Each structure stands twice: as structure tokens, then as C-alpha cells.
Amino acid sequence: MKTTKKIFAISGSTRSNSSNLKILKQIAELSKDLFEVKIFENLAEIPHFNPDLDTENPPQQVTNFRNEIQKADGIIICTPEYVFSLPGSLKNALEWCVSTTIFSKKKVGLITASASGEKGHEELQLIMKTIEASFNADTSLLIQGVRGKVNAEGVIVDNLTLNQIQEFIVALDNLLWK
């Protein structure tokens, strides 16, 4: 019998109640039989990356973030695109992981949910390949025009998007068991 996998879900937006956070909450609800999802909403609390501080004793917020990644079976990142790139806060958090191997072979699901999102999605995939995360085309999802697809209550109201998210959940579950 399958057990639930621990997922650490990172919202790439620092905006409270963002579309990205709403999507992560929907994924947590839709996948509750498969995953135990812990959503990280504290990107703004991670200090600016500074290689001089990336020592054996980095800032506590960084240690906590790294520990959550380390102990998770898988990671989901759901992020908007800002100026054809990742939000600086998400890139900053990922930079704190470069000197480690915590993402090496870690199973990840990548979602870019934004107005357009194409360039940001490409960048997210490139960064995750660089730090050796394990993902595939089925665990990588671009949701364009997200504001019209998730309502104020956080419900995904676009049937195609809902189907894509359900397929994403199945694909991530399959990846986690490989």
C-alpha cells in the first residue's frame, strides 16, 4: 500500500493570497490522499543571498528553508513571472541552495502561473536543471492568464487548468515513486 509523500510547496510570490498560493492550496486539497503538503509562504523572510554568510552557520531562516527541502520527498514550486523572469525573492531563496546538494536528484514539480510566464518558466527550469533537480515535461506546468482561472476564493474555475493540475499531481506522484 502506498503511503503519502511529504511535499514542500514553495509559493514564488510574496503577495498574501496570491494566485500562486491559491493554486498550491488547491493542489494540497486535490492531492490529500497522495501527499502531505506543507506550504512555504515566507520567502520575504529569507535574507539577501550573501556568499560571505553561506558558511557552516548560515542565517537561521536559510537553515530552516534548507531543512524543509532536505526532509521532503518532493518539492512543488509555483511562481509568477516578473519582468520575464523569476521574482527576485524566489531566485534569492534558490541561490541559498546552490552551494548545497539538497536539490540534487530531488523530485520537483514546477508551475509558473502568470499573465504570460513563458520566459519565467524557462528560467525556472534552467535553474532547477543546474542544481540537478529531477523533473520532466509532465511535472512542469505553465498556466497563462492565471487571474481569470482562479477565483477570489481560490477555486480553479477553468476546467482545462483544473485538468492540467490533476494531470500534474498524477505525474508528480509517479515521479516520486520512481
From TrEMBL:
GO molecular function list: FMN binding; oxidoreductase activity
Pfam families xref list: FMN_red
Annotated NADPH-dependent FMN reductase-like domain residues: 6-123
One Gene Ontology CC term in the entry: cytosol
Designated name of the protein: NAD(P)H-dependent oxidoreductase
The organism of origin for this protein: Flavobacterium soyangense
